Amino acid sequence: LGSPPTRADARWSPPSGVARQGVASPHSVRPYLLVFAVSAGVTFVVTPVVRGLALRLGWIDYPSDRKVHPKPTPTAGGLAMYLGVAAGLLAARVIPFLSGLHQTSSELDAAFVAATVVVILGLVDDTRGVTAIGKLAGQVLAAGIVVLLGVQLLYFYFPGQDVIALSPDLAVPLTVLWIVALMNAVNLVDGLDGLAAGMVAIAAIAFFAYFRTPDGGGDQASVAALMSTIVAGVALGFLPWNFHPAKIFMGDSGALLLGLLMAVATISGVGQNLEGPSGGDLAVIAIPIAVPLLVLAVPLLD
Q1: 0.90 cut: is pTM over it?
Q2: Are 51 and 248 in contact (CB under 8 A)?
């Protein structure tokens, strides 16, 4: 495919003659379905265990004037979701179609390390409380870890300008801003039973559907599609325990985790196809950027 854009480039045009992948075949979708089943299954099974632990340790979210639930409810369900994420990543390592992603990219490792940070931050906030400044600092730390481990916005498609490469002074702060914004967006909509988990599940499924199209990567294994699969799995695995009346809340540990993983998926997905969409139509060229913005428009506006 040739050399990727350098940070100093203002513009970069991908090489011509690159064959575009076809529509995803059933054989390329099955590995993702297996990862989805593992993530959802582990989350579903572990959630009542975490609920029992929360009751025993006093991890309870009590009613207040700013909350809508009428009775004390166990929280910190994000711990179960974290175990579901770990199980999904482990399953991907042993599935031949997906195992190569761990060897060719640092994105999955970056996502897991940062996920560990935000789950710890969320657990402390769920059980003891963290100041707004402290929570923001922890979120920036997690986003910084993602950047340091090699995940950042390097370029994006812009109408009439081919591919625009971002310089380091723009790539790093924009990546951190996007990750922090998405974590807080999911956290803000986690106010009603099943709302955050349901919305994130829908968004993750939409991302996966796009990433399996020709413009999104076709039959190729991709980090974006895998992360979307895992997020959908843990969200749907947790949802039966979070329907009204919720038996357990995901808490900040779960909301921040889902937001972080969605951010990594979108960052990976925006620049994964070096050829980019063909044609000059504005809507076609803007698809990789428009998809995450449109799907997550409600929580982002909130």
Answers
A1: no
A2: yes
